[in-house]
Amino acid sequence: MPARTPPAPPLLNPVIGLWRDGVHLKLAFDRETLAGTPEIGTSGGLDDRIRRRESEFLLSDIRSHIRVVRRDRRIIASAGEAARPARPRAGGRAIIFETIRYEVDDGVARIELNRPHRLNAINSVMSRELPEMWRRFDADSDAIVAVVTGAGDKAFCTGADLADLPEMLLDEQGAPSIASIRWTPLQNQVWKPVICAINGAVMGGGLHFVAECDIVLASESATFCDPHVSVGLVSGLETIALARRMPMGPVLRMALAGRDETITAREAQALGMVGELCAPDALMPRAQALAARIRRNSPSAMARTKRAIWSAKETGLTQASLDAWTVMMRHNQTHDFAEGVRAFTEKRAPRWAPYSGVEPNEAGQ
Questions:
Q1: How far apart are the first and last CA of the chain?
Q2: β strands within 106-164, DSSP E
Q3: What are phi and psi of 260, to 5 degrees?
Q4: How does pLDDT run across 35-76, given as a tens digit for each residue?
Q5: Could you tell me whether strands 201-203 and 223-225 are parallel, antiparallel, or unpaired per DSSP bridges?
């Protein structure tokens, strides 16, 4: 009688099942929801690869699982997800990431989630690159405001790529942690202004950007859906964040109806999820024009304004007002306060000081 394969440790059973089943559920859901996208389902033999790896999962610990997932991701990437370096426009400069296009031109950073063949779903590579990208944006005194959008014209972001979900939920020490989800400027405590330009479908984890960017513009063809419960997952983080931006009732309806509830761009605007709608070909010009207006303002004053307003959602009205007063008094001792008053009285354009995400008290000023 052949020897029996020992059962997987209890901790790993749900991880294995989620990884295997999630791949097929995600692909099936995307096929049905966004019909006519030929790239969907071209997983480079992922199903066969999963079967071959299951025995390895049963005999290895969680860290060896991560190494297997990373190796398979690289193999799949070489077949259809080769990194494309960002190309700066004339007068601009770019930082190269594998899954994100990032370039700065005339004070405006353009950030593009760049996995269009997977509808810009966030895999483990993008999940690691997003915090680094936000850190660089925050520290770059040449970048005053950002516009974030998705590559292609079908989707802004369809949430987490379930093929990579187990690895994405682990922190640097290999333990499950909420700290592993740091995709948005707010999650990374970036206080520079960020405009979100929704160019297509937004699903699941993609709603983080809608909930936590400062200004949200959307194409008239954009749609919003939260399919978590339809694939057996809990909808928690992004929907909690959305409830700060729009009424709780529609958030609950979207979260509980799952894949069967899609919000149109016009409905999203009426609910407060989106601030402005644009024709598809006018979305990025409008976002860039708005960014150009914003970048003329004092970078440090904008950062402190944004921080005071977002912090009010955490602390309540009374404490937020006291905190804002402290920030205002501190700002009144800075170069930009004096320069703004002087430029106004002299009827000239102000010359603002560079801002790189460091508050005066943090820099010892």
A1: 76
A2: 108-113, 145-150, 155-157
A3: -85, 0
A4: 544 333 344 454 555 445 544 443 344 444 444 444 444 444
A5: parallel
Domains and CATH numbers, the chain: 12-80 (no CATH), 93-294 (3.90.226.10), 299-346 (1.10.12)
Per DSSP, the three-state class of 148 is strand
Spatial contact of 26 and 20, defined as CB atoms under 8 Å apart:
no
Helices (H), the chain: 12-33, 46-59, 62-80, 124-139, 165-168, 207-212, 237-242, 248-257, 265-271, 283-294, 299-315, 317-331, 335-346
Nearest to 65 by CA among 18, 26, 99, 97: 18
Q: Which residue has 């008290």 as its token pair?
A: 361
How far is it, in rounded angstroms, from Cα 92 to Cα 57? Answer: 46
> For residue 118, which amino acid is it?
R
pTM reported for the whole predicted model: 0.72
Residue 229 CA: distances (Å) to CA of 124, 204, 232, 256, 258:
22, 10, 5, 7, 6
Angstrom distance (rounded) from CA 222 to CA 317: 34
Q: Which amino acid is at 122?
A: I
